[in-house]
Write a structure and sequence with these properties.
Blueprint lengths: L1 E6 L6 H12 L2 E4 H11 L2 H11 L6 H14 L5 E5 L5 H13 L6 E6 L2 H15 L2 H4 L1 H15 L1 H8 L3 E5 L4 H10 L3
Parallel strand pairs: 1-3, 1-4, 2-3, 4-5
Bound molecules: adenosine-5'-diphosphate (ADP).
Adenosine-5'-diphosphate (ADP) binds next to helix 2 and helix 3.
Length: about 190
C-alpha cells in the first residue's frame, strides 16, 4: 500500500492535483480540510470546535486531525493507496503519522511538495474565494494568519521529511497541466 503526502501552502493546488491523481492513478484522497468542512456542515461537536478556529485562520488541534486520519485509514481497506492532502501540518502531526503507519506495519512512501510564493498564495486564494464560497478565503487578515501559520508551524515539516529522504518538491510556476505533469512523475 502506498501512502503519499501532498504538501504545500494554502492554495498551492493540493486539492486540484489530488483529484487528478484519483482519476488517473486510483488512489484514495483524504483532505483534512474537506473532512473538517463536512463536520462543520453536519453541525457535529467536532465541527463546532473546528469552525471557530478555521474562521480565524488557525489550525485545528493535532489530536483532532490525527483521529480523523486514523479513522479514514481503517474505514478504507483494500484501496491502492492514500493521498494525504493538508496533513500533516505540524511536526507533531508528522510524528503521529509515522506512529500510525508503523502501527499498521506500513510506512510513508514519499512527500510531494508544491512550491508557490506567498504572493501567489494570496492571488490564488482570492480567486478561489469567488468560486468556492469559503469564508476563510475571502478575508485578507485571515489569509495573512494562514500564511504566518504555514511558515511557523507547517514549514518545519519539510526538514522532518528531508531527514528521512522522503521529500520531493515541484515548483508550480506553469499551467495546471504543466504543474500536474511534474507532480504525476513523482507518484507511482
Ligand atoms: P488550504 O489548503 O487552503 O489551507 P484546507 O482545506 O487544507 O485549505 O484547510 C482549511 C483549514 O482547515 C486550515 O486553515 C486549518 O484551519 C484546518 N486544517 C486542515 N487540515 C488541518 C491539519 N492537518 N491540522 C490542523 N488544521 C487543519
Amino acid at each position: 500500500m502506498k501512502y503519499y503526502v501532498l504538501f504545500g501552502p494554502p492554495g498551492a493546488g493540493k486539492g486540484t492535483f489530488a483529484k487528478l491523481l484519483v482519476e488517473n492513478k486510483g488512489y484514495y484522497h483524504i483532505s483534512t480540510g474537506d473532512l473538517l468542512r463536512n463536520e462543520i456542515a453536519a453541525g457535529t461537536p467536532l465541527g463546532l470546535e473546528a469552525k471557530s478556529l478555521i474562521e480565524k485562520g488557525n489550525l485545528v488541534p493535532d489530536d483532532v486531525v490525527c483521529g480523523m486520519i486514523r479513522a479514514q485509514f481503517s474505514s478504507n481497506p483494500g484501496v491502492r493507496g492514500f493521498l494525504l492532502d493538508g496533513f500533516p501540518r505540524t511536526v507533531a502531526q508528522a510524528e503521529a503519522l509515522d506512529k500510525i503507519l508503523s502501527g499498521m506495519g506500513a510506512e510513508l512512501t514519499r512527500v510531494v511538495s508544491i512550491y508557490i510564493t506567498d504572493e501567489e498564495v494570496r492571488r490564488r486564494i482570492k480567486g478561489r474565494a469567488l468560486v468556492e464560497n469559503r469564508a476563510d478565503d475571502a478575508d485578507d487578515e485571515i489569509i495573512s494568519t494562514r500564511i504566518k501559520n504555514y511558515h511557523e508551524k507547517t514549514e518545519p515539516v519539510i526538514n522532518y521529511y528531508k531527514k528521512q529522504g522522503k521529500y520531493f518538491e515541484v515548483v508550480a510556476d506553469g499551467t495546471i497541466q504543466e504543474n500536474y505533469a511534474k507532480v504525476e512523475k513523482l507518484v507511482d
